Fold each of these.
Amino acid sequence: MASKKDKPALTHIDVKGEARMVDVSAKPATERVAVAEGQVVMTKATLALIEGGNAKKGDVLGTARIAGIMAAKRTSELIPLCHPLALSKVTLDIETDKKLPGCRVRASVKVSGPTGVEMEALTAVSVACLTIYDMIKAVERGVRIEGIHLVEKKGGKSGHYLVTDT
């Protein structure tokens, strides 16, 4: 029989098995950073429209960048058990990639607080990717959003996490 130490604890579940928001009031405020990535895969012709600035809805990458930043700031309104955080920095980088073909989206989020910003980074990437899709869906409905994941996390009790290629 496995002991409680053998099982990882789900911090958002109470002893009755019900969802709860974690109490972070006793945790010290430390600098925390999270980086997430994802990609939007499309045809070369659609990518050329984006790179040429010829999408009917306007500046695809600029709009997606702003949408991702806004989403990071509103994560607690979208993900029910996330804490509202006063983010100190959000960067969203979007690069076109002819080999994909498509766009690579990367968000970095920073806060000084008692809880991490992984969800904010993941939300920023997700919404930026969805915005790219929205901006180009009229010319290509088969666009795919892929590979959204946490790349790096720094700070807090669990320390440094970095994805390494296997």
Note: Helices lie at 44-51, 60-73, 75-78, 118-136.
Amino acid sequence: MDAISTAQDRYGRLPEGPGAGPEPDLGRLGLDQLRTLRRETLDQEADLSYLRRLLHGRMDILLAELDRRPGAGGTARTTDPAEPAGALLERLPAILTDAPSTVRRSARHVTLGPPRGQQSQLEADALMGDVQLADLAAHPAEELLAALERLRAHEREVSGRRQRLLRTADGCNAEITRRYRDGEARVDDLLAGGPL
């Protein structure tokens, strides 16, 4: 059960899906409840972020393998057509390296590291189906394209879930800030050992 589902059980209904309706009424939650909800949503978002990175890495590897094959929709422009399939392993650092982003985004703390459970790895493995990364050359292009489409569809769904969690966490931050600014919460309570 994710943090939003848990919060729905505790605090009432939150919006469904990435574009669903108005944000939850965080104003009726207590300060401790807001902090707990924020922490849970950020923990869940970190797990989903890790899953997204796994999915993107696998998609990049599949695309590189397809590109290596001149007759499979690829152009073989990145490698010599006679290159053995095992050479893909040697190119992994280049395949998996992200180019610097040209899009300016607001800064957000990013937690790096593996998720708290193995669910992300299991999801990514299941989406690959019969296609194993260790032996991509043994699979026809159709199987690779089908695996790529499954990964893309799941990545879109995971991105929607992440956006929903981030909106909830941002809403919690804004409500906590408003309470301190408006005097509904006191910094002295935090200094006295209250929960963050």
Note: The first helix runs from residue 3 to 11.
Amino acid sequence: MSPMNPINPINPDGSIGPGVGEGLPGDGTRRTRRAPSAPPPYVLTEDTPVYVISVAAELSGLHPQTLRQYDRLGLVCPDRTAGRGRRYSARDIQQLRDVQRLSQDEGINLAGIKRIIELENQVTALQSRVAELVDSLEGAATALQQREAAVHASYRRDLVPYQPPTPQSSALVVWRPKR
């Protein structure tokens, strides 16, 4: 487990909070009332919406009003609670940092950043589709090889004697039917 400061949940590597499956920060022990073979009741992933807007603003280094503006523009869209409150995930906070970096360091306007994010999402979707198609193609190739092997296995394996071709003669054979 990576060392964490309970006041600042940002890890030294720049990630936020405990890693997937690392549990909660502390002494590293986690007591549970369930059997050891049962899965944990709630697993935090980088897509789990857990941070309210004030915490997300502090973690990303932005003002809460900026986060609201980014949400209105569609740059970073956090999940919503039943009461319509925003809940940010670790992935959302990383995306906020990326938006800030592109805006401040690279000088890209917000419309350009939105287009970059859309294109990155499109590339990700296309890469997953290509992976699906490759898997499907590999499955079809395997099925074809199995069918081909079944056809070859069905061939008869009888021995047929080899007879060399006879040389052609110039003899004439006349056939007369019996009466």
Note: The chain is about 45% helix and 0% strand.
Amino acid sequence: MKHFLYTTVACIAFVGVASANEFESELKQLANGKIAEIVSSGEVVSAVKEQNGVTASYDQAKIDELDKTWRAEADAIEQPMIDEVLEKPLSAHLAEIQEGSGGLFTEIFVMDAKGLNVGQSNVTSDFWQGDEAKWQETYSAGKGAVHISDLEQDDSTQIVQSQVSVPVIDPDSGEAIGAVTFGVNVDNL
């Protein structure tokens, strides 16, 4: 019985991993093609550089304070901090890209060198992404890094998506200056 139980658990674990990576090849292709083109655009690079100039001196206490404010505003009627980010030209640019993607992109958000949101097509649940793999495994790894999340189904939309994240690279220095995450509807690959 013990052997059966371990075999069953191993099979279930294997099936979970297989479905999590089912679109990995296509998602990496997308990351190295269309996503890389968007991320290297002047709009993205200049917005990240500009925000890095503002947030470079932020310590963890400041980051936590900003994140707490963002999370509180996400459920509030008044959302001055969220509105400020959504009203940036970069956010409008990202919303246009998402809208023009034919349903391929479900969300796009750009993060700075601290993992703080620079711009986004939709409101994120938090302001600081620096504690998450999408930022840590791309920004820290630098040029060529790609992070692909597990597949997740959105209960409200029934869309199956994966998040694809890549670093933003300064074309002058070749160094990572931020990161970008794209929600990708895998049915539209």
Note: DSSP finds seven helices and six strands in the chain.
